[in-house]
Design brief:
Elements (H helix, E strand, L loop, with lengths): L3 E5 L5 E2 L8 E2 L3 H14 L3 E3 L9 H8 L7 E6 L6 H14 L4 E5 L5 H6 L6 H19 L4 E4 L4 E5 L13 E4 L3 H10 L2 E5 L3 H16 L6 E5 L1 E5 L2 H11 L5 H11 L5 H10 L7 E3 L2 E2 L12 E5 H14 L1 E5 L5 H12 L39
Parallel strand pairs: 1-4, 1-16, 4-5, 5-6, 6-9, 9-10, 10-11, 11-16, 12-15
Antiparallel strand pairs: 2-3, 7-8, 13-14, 14-15
Helix pairs in contact: 1-12, 3-5, 5-6, 6-7
EC number: 1.14.14.5
Pfam family, one: Bac_luciferase
InterPro entries: Alkanesulphonate_mOase_FMN-dep (IPR019911), Luciferase-like_dom (IPR011251), Luciferase-like_sf (IPR036661), SsuD_RutA_monooxygenase (IPR050172)
Length: about 375
């Protein structure tokens, strides 16, 4: 199986060490542009742009980098409950058109109630997934060219439609991750690619089987991806030393404070990440070459593949054998580590050159004049 490898734009900060400002660097547009242009040239398929109150806005970041990249795809966050699905569809179509079909979208339901409340969203875990399912239904149908009338428990639209369609047909793909039963139900019914965080093989295998079964009930198939960090060096010994150096400046008090915060959310996936290390920095290799040190202080993806190029490639193949075809990697600092991954890991991988299942055929953009009363004038008026 040819693999898709994406990188990560660190819009919440970057540096040489976790849990400290030592070795940190300024993350401005120039730096993000450096990373985007580097991974575009190095052969990564796309970049994930994170979302949340600690991050720069993912849509604006993607839009700002379209013109300075050529092939790179941008995986941008959709936030149900925070934005109208019809407006989000219009924005998605615009980004897809302006980037000539390089837009991908990541449905992010969110797992931190305090952050969501600050955004004006006061739904519990079950309600958030209900609202997300309604959002995704409307968003998909509008982008596919339908006029949507929908009345659900949380959302209602009347005659929702899109005048300017996306470039990708029938629409840009929808990515989504979540470990709860409700999340897997949504994935099975509505998304193209289900993302898991980097858990040990048996746990990932179980998730894949569950989502496949749920998709089959709807007569669908779902592709699978995994979100991981990576630490690759010329030797595996060097890679493990780099892993230890990454957390060298974190003290036990910082770990305890971070874990208290991270486990206070209602995210099932975040609790699963925390359970891999239990806040203990002495038991961090939780599976062969799978290291949980990043999750001591970082929310979201908290594990890394560690080793030389052939070793990391072998671990990736084990995930691929389960059905994973997309790897979304990151590493600290993100600019230098992108080069290391390309130079030391890519030669050992069968990389997808152009994944038509991720980027469907592009439709031609037709010439059109200005709208008249919100409608297109299809033919020139002729005087009799």
């Amino acid at each position: 199986m040819s693999l898709n490898v994406f990188w990560f734009l660190p819009t919440h900060g970057d540096g040489h060490y976790l849990g400290t400002d030592e070795g940190a660097r300024v993350v401005d547009h120039g730096y993000l542009q450096q990373i985007a242009q580097a991974v575009d040239r190095l052969g990564f398929g796309g970049v994930l742009i994170p979302t949340g109150r600690s991050c720069e806005d993912s849509w604006l970041v993607a839009a700002s980098l379209i013109s300075v990249t050529q092939k790179l795809k941008f995986l941008v966050a959709l936030r149900p409950g925070i934005i109208s699905p019809t407006l989000a569809a219009r924005q998605a179509a615009t980004l897809d058109r302006l980037s000539n079909g390089r837009a991908l979208f990541n449905l992010v339901t969110g797992g931190d109630p305090s952050e969501l409340e600050a955004e004006g969203l006061f739904l519990n875990h079950e309600e958030r997934y209900e609202a997300s399912a309604e959002f995704a239904h409307i968003w998909r149908k509008v982008l596919e060219g339908e006029t949507v009338n929908f009345e659900g428990k949380h959302l209602k639209v009347k005659n929702a439609s899109l005048l300017h369609p996306p470039v990708q047909t029938p629409r840009p793909p929808l990515y989504f991750g979540g470990s709860s039963e409700a999340a897997q139900d949504l994935a099975g019914e509505q998304v193209e690619l289900y993302l898991t965080w980097g858990e040990p093989l048996e746990q990932v295998k179980e998730k894949i089987a569950q989502v496949r079964a749920k998709a089959a009930k709807h007569g669908r198939t779902v592709r699978f991806g995994i979100r991981l960090h990576v630490i690759v060096r010329e030797t595996t010994e060097e890679a493990w030393k780099a892993a230890e150096r990454l957390i060298a400046n974190i003290d036990d008090e910082t770990i305890a404070r971070a874990q208290a915060k991270l486990t206070s959310t209602d995210s099932v996936g975040q609790h699963r990440m925390a359970a891999l290390h239990g806040g203990n920095r002495d038991k961090l290799e939780i599976a062969p070459n799978l290291w949980a040190g990043i999750g001591l202080v970082r929310s979201g993806a908290g594990t890394a593949l560690v080793g030389d190029g052939p070793t990391v490639a072998a671990r990736m193949q084990e995930y691929a054998d389960l059905g994973i075809d997309t790897f979304i990697f990151s590493g600290y600092p993100h600019l230098e580590e992108a080069y290391r991954v390309a130079e030391l890991l890519f030669p050992h991988l069968d990389l997808a050159k152009e994944d038509s299942s991720v980027t469907p055929l592009r439709r031609r953009i037709e010439p059109r004049g200005e709208l008249v009363a919100h409608e297109f004038v299809s033919k020139r008026a002729v005087k009799s």
